[in-house]
Write a structure and sequence with these properties.
The complex is a heterodimer.
Chain A: H1 8-31, H2 60-70, E1 80-89, E2 94-105, H3 114-132, H4 137-143, E3 149-158, E4 170-179, E5 182-190, H5 195-202, H6 209-215, E6 228-229, E7 250-253, E8 256-257, E9 267-270, H7 280-285, H8 287-297, H9 305-316, H10 350-353, H11 375-387, H12 395-401, H13 421-428, H14 496-502, H15 514-537, H16 539-549
Antiparallel strand pairs in A: 1-2, 1-3, 2-5, 3-6, 4-5, 7-9
Helix pairs in contact in A: 1-2, 1-3, 5-13, 8-9
Chain B: E1 6-7, E2 17-26, H1 30-44, E3 46-47, E4 50-52, E5 57-60, E6 65-69, E7 76-80, H2 83-102, E8 108-119, E9 128-142, H3 147-172, H4 187-190, E10 199-200, E11 203-210, E12 216-219, H5 225-230
Parallel strand pairs in B: 1-9, 2-9
Antiparallel strand pairs in B: 3-10, 4-5, 6-7, 8-9, 8-11, 11-12
The chains are: A alpha+beta, B alpha+beta.
InterPro entries (chain B): ATG101
Organism (chain B): Sterrhoptilus dennistouni
GO cellular component, one term (chain B): Atg1/ULK1 kinase complex
C-alpha cells in the first residue's frame, strides 16, 4: 500500500489511534468479564484523557499486559491482537470461552479522513464493543463467577488461535473501520459447546470426567502469555507494582473543525506532567486527570477502585494515593485488605492456591499498593464527586470498596442453584457447525468494508410503519436475516408468540394412556419369540457384518 | 427542544433508512425490552456535548456508559450515562406500555425511534423535519399460563434480545449516512442540545397500537412518514 497519499502527520495520528484503540478494546473486554456492572460518568467538558470521547477506565494491569503483548507493534496483516477469555473451575480445569480478535486487513480506504472520520468510527466501534460484550454467553457466566469458577483473560499478539474453542464455535462481528493503511476488524469467536456444564446441572452424580477432559486440552502453546483473572481478588499478597507506562503520557485533546474536512484540526499533545507529589490532593488539580479522576470516583462497585484512579497512576508514573480515610497519620503505610473492620470474609478458593506457573493471580489493585493520603485529600475527594451529577455511587461507598473483595456479582448463590439450566438452552440444541474453511472465515478474510457513500446516493424510500422485518421492499437497507446467534430456529422457525399459541394444548400421548399401553406391551411380548427366531436365522449375516467392522 | 416541526412535505422521505425489529414478550417485559433496544440505538447515536471555539473548531465531551440488568428478562445491556435521556425514554416506553395494556387488543403494537434533521423554512412555514434513520420495534404481547412458562420466557426473550443487539450493531457498522457535523449555528438542526451531559442526534419516539384486525387504533401526534402521505 502506498503511503505517499498519507501525510506524515496523518500517519502518526493514525498509528496513535490504532494503538489506543487496541488498548481500549482490551479494557472494555476485560472489564466486561469482571463479573460486575460497569458504570462511568458522562462529562460535558472534554477531558484530555478520554480517548474516542468515551469514558472507559484504564485498569493499569490490563494496560500493562496489553502493551507487553503488543511489544510496541500495531495490529497488521497476520498480526492480530487477541484477548482470550477462559473459565477455570475450582477443581483446576479450564476451558476457553471466547477469543476477541482485533485484526487488520489490506483493504485500504485512501479517501477517508484520519483525524475525523476514522476517529469517530473507532469511537462508534468501541460503543458496539460495549454492547456486544454483554450479549455473548460468557457475559452471563462471568456475572456468576466466584464460587465454582472464575473467568480469566490472556492477551496475545500474532496469529489467531481458535482451536481451543471446541467444535462449532460461533463468531460475531463487532464491526470494521476502514483506514488508509488497512481495514480494522473486531470480532469475537465464542464456544457454544458448553454441554458439559448442563450435564453437571442435571446429573446429581459427580461429573463424568471423560466429558470434561474433552474440553480441557493441554495448552498447545506452553510459552503463551500468562492468564489473568478478570475479577480482582484482594486477598493475595502479590508484591508486583506495575511500572509506569512510559509512553502513555500521551493525551488526546480532540478538537474538530466544522470547516470542510480538509481543514480538520486534530491535535494530540503530550500531557503536561509536573513531577507529581505523592499526595492525592494535587492529583485532583492536574487538569488532564481531573475529570478522569472524577468519573472514577463515581463508579462504586468495582473492587479495583484504587487502580482505577491509576488511570492517572499509569500515566503519571506513580500510584495514585487514595483517600482511604484510614491511617491518615501514616501517609505511606501500606494498607491491606482485612485490616479494616467490617470487611466481609473472603471465601477460600482452592484452585487459586495451587498456581500453575502460567497463571498469575495479579492483585496490584487491592489496597496493598496504595498508601493512604492525608485527611485533606479525602475532603477533596468528596468535593470532586459531589460536584458531579448523576454519579453511580457515593464517595463513601467508594472508600469502602477498596477493602472489599469482590468475587462476582452473585456470590451468595451457589452455582448449581442458579439458572445454569439457562446455559442448556442456548447451546444444547445448537447443531454444531463444521469449522469454517479459512477462506470463509470472516476473521481471516473479512467482508469488504462498505464505501463511504454520499448521502444522495442511497435510493431509499421509507415505508414508515408498514413492512415486516425481512423480505420487505426497502431497497438498499434490508435487515439481513442471518443466522441468529442463540436461536434454535433451525428446527422450528417461528416466533415466540406463534409458538406458544400453537403448542399450548398438545394432545396427550397415546402411550401414556394405560389401556393402550398395556395392550401394546402384551403384543410386544407375544411377538418376541417370533422375532428371536428370525434373528437366529440371520445370524450368519450379522457375523459377517461384524467382521467388516474389524 | 419540544417544538414540533412539520414533517417534510416533499413526499416520501428520501434517504431515510428504516430498520424493523420484532419481539414477542410477556406484558411485564415490554418496558425492559423496549428500553434495551432504544438505549442500544441511542448509545450509537449520541455523542459528547460539543463546545465550539473560535475559527469553527469544536471539542467533544465524554460519554459515559453503564450496565443495566433487567428484572423480568435474563438480559443485560449498556446505556449512555445520562439520567435525562433515560427518563425521556422511560416516559415514552411507559406510555407505550400503558397504551398496549389498555387497548384491549391482541397486544400488538410498535414503537418507533426516528432520527431527523431540521431544515429551516421562512415564515409562515414551519421548519421541516427530514428523517434519516427510522427504527421500528414491533411488539407482540403474549399471555403465559404458569410460572414454568414464565421462566422459559425470561430466557428466550433474553436470547432474542441478544440477537437484536447484534442486529443493531450490524446496521451501525455499515457506516452509512450520518448528518454532516454542523457548524455552531446549525447544531440544533442536527443534535438535541438540550441535555446537559450528552448530545444525541435529534430524535422522536412514536408508537402505534394495532387491534386484532391489524388496523391502527391509536397514534401519537408525532407523525410517522406514512401518515404524512395520507394527508
Amino acid at each position: 500500500a502506498m503511503d505517499t497519499d498519507l501525510s506524515s502527520q496523518d500517519r502518526k495520528d493514525l498509528d496513535k489511534f490504532i494503538k489506543f484503540f487496541a488498548l481500549k478494546t482490551v479494557q472494555v473486554i476485560v472489564q466486561a468479564r469482571l463479573g460486575e456492572k460497569i458504570c462511568t460518568r458522562s462529562s460535558s467538558s472534554p477531558t484530555g484523557s478520554d480517548w474516542f470521547n468515551l469514558a472507559i477506565k484504564d485498569i493499569p494491569e490490563v494496560t500493562h499486559e496489553a502493551k507487553k503483548a503488543l511489544a510496541g507493534q500495531l495490529p497488521a496483516v497476520g498480526r492480530s491482537m487477541c484477548v482470550e477469555i477462559s473459565l477455570k473451575t475450582s477443581e483446576g480445569d479450564s476451558m476457553e470461552l471466547e477469543i476477541w480478535c482485533l485484526e487488520m486487513n489490506e483493504k485500504c480506504d485512501k479517501e477517508i479522513k484520519v483525524s475525523y472520520t476514522v476517529y469517530n468510527r473507532l469511537s462508534l466501534l468501541l460503543k458496539s464493543l460495549l454492547a456486544i460484550t454483554r450479549v455473548t454467553p460468557a457475559y452471563r457466566l462471568s456475572r456468576k463467577q466466584g464460587h465454582e469458577y472464575v473467568i480469566l483473560y490472556r492477551i496475545y499478539f500474532g496469529e489467531v488461535q481458535l482451536s481451543g474453542l471446541g467444535e462449532g464455535f460461533q463468531t460475531v462481528r463487532v464491526g470494521t473501520v476502514g483506514t488508509p493503511v488497512g481495514t480494522i476488524t473486531l470480532s469475537c469467536a465464542y464456544r457454544i459447546n458448553l454441554a458439559f456444564m448442563s450435564t453437571r446441572q442435571f446429573e446429581r452424580t459427580p461429573p463424568i470426567m471423560g466429558i470434561i477432559i474433552d474440553h480441557f486440552v493441554d495448552r498447545p502453546y506452553p510459552s503463551s502469555s500468562p492468564m489473568h483473572p478478570c475479577n480482582y481478588r484482594a486477598g493475595e499478597d502479590n508484591g508486583a507494582v506495575y511500572p509506569s507506562v512510559e509512553d502513555s503520557q500521551e493525551v488526546c485533546t480532540t478538537s474538530f473543525s466544522t470547516s470542510p474536512p480538509s481543514q480538520c484540526v486534530f491535535t494530540v499533545t503530550k500531557a503536561h506532567f509536573q513531577t507529581p507529589p505523592p499526595v492525592v490532593t494535587d492529583t485532583l488539580k492536574v487538569p488532564v486527570m481531573g475529570l478522569a479522576f472524577s468519573h472514577q470516583l463515581s463508579s462504586s462497585r468495582l473492587s479495583y477502585q484504587p487502580a482505577a484512579l491509576g488511570v492517572g497512576s499509569a500515566d503519571m508514573g506513580y500510584p495514585v494515593l487514595f483517600a482511604g480515610g484510614l491511617n491518615a497519620a501514616h501517609p505511606h503505610q501500606l494498607i491491606g485488605p482485612g485490616k479494616e473492620g467490617g470487611v466481609p470474609p473472603v471465601p477460600s478458593q482452592p484452585a487459586h492456591g495451587t498456581q500453575a506457573d502460567q497463571e498469575r493471580m495479579c492483585t496490584p489493585l487491592d489496597g496493598v499498593h496504595y498508601s493512604a493520603a492525608t485527611p485533606s485529600s479525602s475532603e477533596d475527594t468528596e468535593t470532586v464527586s459531589n460536584s458531579s451529577e448523576g454519579k453511580c455511587g457515593s464517595p463513601h461507598d467508594l472508600l469502602e470498596t477498596i477493602f472489599i473483595r469482590k468475587v462476582g456479582a452473585f456470590v451468595n448463590k451457589p452455582i448449581n442453584q442458579v439458572t445454569m439450566a439457562n446455559l442448556d438452552i442456548p447451546f444444547a440444541m445448537f447443531a454444531p457447525k463444521n469449522v469454517e474453511l479459512e477462506d470463509n472465515d470472516p476473521m481471516v478474510n473479512p467482508p469488504a468494508s462498505p464505501e463511504t457513500e454520499s448521502p444522495l446516493q442511497g435510493s431509499l424510500h421509507s415505508e414508515g410503519s408498514s413492512g415486516s422485518s425481512t423480505g420487505n421492499t426497502h431497497d438498499d437497507f434490508v435487515m439481513v436475516d442471518f443466522k441468529p446467534a442463540f436461536s434454535k430456529d433451525d428446527i422450528l422457525p417461528m416466533d415466540l408468540g406463534t409458538f406458544y399459541r400453537e403448542f399450548q394444548n398438545p394432545p396427550q400421548l397415546s402411550s401414556l394412556s394405560i389401556d393402550i399401553g398395556a395392550q401394546s406391551m402384551a403384543e410386544d411380548l407375544d411377538s418376541l419369540p417370533e422375532k428371536l427366531a428370525v434373528h437366529e436365522k440371520n445370524v450368519k449375516e450379522f457375523d459377517a457384518f461384524v467382521e467388516t467392522l474389524q | 427542544s419540544s417544538r414540533c416541526c412539520a414533517p417534510s412535505s416533499a413526499g416520501p422521505a428520501m434517504n431515510c433508512r428504516a430498520e424493523v425489529l420484532e419481539v414477542s414478550v410477556e406484558g411485564r417485559q415490554v418496558e425492559e425490552a423496549m428500553l434495551a433496544v432504544l438505549h442500544t440505538v441511542l448509545l450509537h447515536r449520541s455523542t459528547g456535548k460539543f463546545h465550539y471555539k473560535k475559527e469553527g473548531t469544536y471539542s467533544i465531551g465524554t460519554v459515559g456508559t453503564q450496565d443495566v440488568d433487567c428484572d423480568f428478562i435474563d438480559f443485560a445491556y449498556v446505556r449512555v450515562s445520562s439520567e435525562e435521556l433515560d427518563r425521556a425514554l422511560r416516559k415514552a416506553v411507559g406510555e407505550f406500555k400503558d397504551a398496549l395494556r389498555s387497548s384491549g387488543s391482541d397486544g400488538m403494537g410498535q414503537i418507533s425511534l426516528e432520527f431527523y434533521q431540521k431544515k429551516k423554512s421562512r415564515w409562515p412555514f414551519s421548519d421541516e423535519c427530514i428523517p434519516w434513520e427510522l427504527w421500528t420495534i414491533k411488539v407482540n404481547v403474549v399471555n403465559l399460563a404458569n410460572e414454568q412458562e414464565r421462566q422459559i420466557c425470561r430466557e428466550k426473550v433474553g436470547e432474542k434480545l441478544c440477537e437484536k443487539i447484534i442486529n443493531i450493531v450490524e446496521v451501525m457498522n455499515r457506516h452509512e449516512y450520518l448528518p454532516k457535523m454542523p457548524t455552531q449555528s446549525e447544531v440544533d438542526n442536527v443534535f438535541d442540545t438540550s441535555l446537559k451531559d450528552v448530545q444525541p442526534y435529534l430524535y422522536k419516539i412514536s408508537y402505534q397500537i394495532t387491534d386484532s384486525l391489524g388496523t391502527s387504533v391509536t397514534t401519537t401526534m408525532r407523525r410517522l412518514i406514512k401518515d404524512t402521505l395520507a394527508l
